[in-house]
Amino acid sequence: MAQNIRESRPIPQNINEEYYQISGEILSSFPKYRPPVDLFSFREDISVLAPYCKKGVRLSNEQVDEVAALCAEGNLFVSRSDHPIYSRHIVKQLDLVLQDQNLKEAEIADICIRALLLRYGQFAEQPVKLVFEPLYRDVMVVTEYLWNDRHRCTIFMRRLFRKYSQPRHAINTMIVGLWLWLQGTGEIRRRDLDRMALAFLLHDVGMLKVPAFLTNKSGPLKTEEREKILPHPLVGIKLMQKMDVAFEELVRACFEHHERLDGSGYPQHLKGAQISRVGRITAIADSFSAMICDRPYGQSKDILAAAKELAGDARYDQEMTNRLLTAFAAGGIGPTVDMDAAVDAPETAAD
């Protein structure tokens, strides 16, 4: 019955311009009894929104059930004036950033990075296909956003993490890798963009199988400890093969990101032209991302200093490293944003 009423009285467009329609996934991310935003319900009988409750006010059990029912019917909304709070929850339904015309590009980049951090973190804890699928969907949202304007990748480049974790390293590598790939590529196909994003993001996925006491060790690794890490490129490929996503670009990124042009890399000691373009880009993006992040065994380098060091290292593709250096040295990337502070900031009581 309610479905028939909703179809006969569609939600007016002006409401969608001023309010967000809350999905069940976003609602579930709110504190159950104290919503962090003002809630509004859509009155189907008169086609208007009416205030339901104020942010931070405790709901009764009956109201909690009613809010859930309103949400399930598509009749629960939040004002766009609560965007700063709402944006921290929209990461649970990232495709909304493609629909919301009022979000600024910087806001969308922030939300996308937060979403990828959440999804990759979940995947890192449980690297199985069921948990991979939400990560895959969110990567496709990001590539759809970049597909519409490849220059938006620069906005993401301003938001590189400086504190290390496996998810943050993966996201940094994806951003830097995509930026390098887009800079050196003419016309692109959407399928290629999708695959490159996944390849860069998952290049180091084999490290998820390495014990944490090794990846977090502050001192030098013993020979037997290093031998446990060296196979991670192949481990990553096998892991993704189990999920039916081991396409060529991903295999190259996993297998070649530690290869070097002079043959000094591993696992195959490939040289020069033996290393694919995907492998060359991933090697630069992976190394750059590692250099600019604080690690248990060393402090981070300044972004410009890291770019200069790579540009002076003949083991990496010099055309690409010089492109990266020029962009940062000439100010082409623009001012950086402290993403670590943004994602690590605790929510206030009002939130």
TrEMBL record:
Coiled-coil ranges (or none): none
Family annotation (CDD domains): HDc (cd00077)
InterPro entries: HD/PDEase_dom (IPR003607), HD_GYP_dom (IPR037522)
Domain HD-GYP: start-end pairs: 144-342
Domain of life the protein comes from: Bacteria
Database matches in PROSITE patterns: HD_GYP
Listed Gene3D superfamilies: Hypothetical protein af1432 (1.10.3210.10)
A Pfam family of this chain: HD_5
SUPFAM superfamilies hit by this protein: HD-domain/PDEase-like
Stated name of the protein: HD domain-containing protein
Organism per entry: Desulfovibrio legallii
